[in-house]
Each structure stands twice: as structure tokens, then as C-alpha cells.
Amino acid sequence: MELHEKEHGKLAKDIAFKIDKKLLSIGPKANCETLDKSGNKLAHKLMADLKKANKKYDTRTNHGETQKAWLYMHSKAKKQLAFTHLSLILKKD
Prior knowledge:
By secondary structure, the protein is mostly helical. Helix content is about 75%, strand content about 0%. Helix 1 (about 1-25) packs antiparallel against helix 2 (about 30-60). It has one domain.
């Protein structure tokens, strides 16, 4: 799962870098309000791009399952196994 989540982190860092770079490239504006709107519009567009990239990555990896990481169970048997495992852990305390 660590590999999968690190890739999500990389996607976020890449977008953060792009936001920083693009914000610094915004030229002079007539006033602070116009500058603020331009910056927010740009940042929101790039955050939407991040959301799409994360969704595409999760689809490609089946939420990490193709990387041997998964957060949910696919069948009743697996759910029962997870419940039994959790019960055993709780009994130890």
C-alpha cells in the first residue's frame, strides 16, 4: 500500500509545483481582487486536474490492488476472514 500512496503523493507534489510555477507567471493585474481571482481560477483548475489524475491512477491500479495493496474486501469469504482476524486482535487486549 505504501507504493500506491506514495504515487498519490507524487501526483499531489507535481500539481503543487505546477500551481507554484503558474502563480508566479501571472502577470500584473489592475488590482488585488483581479489578481486573486486569476490565481484562484488557476489553482482550482489544477486541483481538478489532480483529482482526475488520482481517479485515473486508482482506476489503472484498481485502488492499489494491482500493486498488492487493497483497502476493501471483494467477497463474503474475505470479509469474514477480516472480521475473524479483527476479532482475534481485539481479544488479545
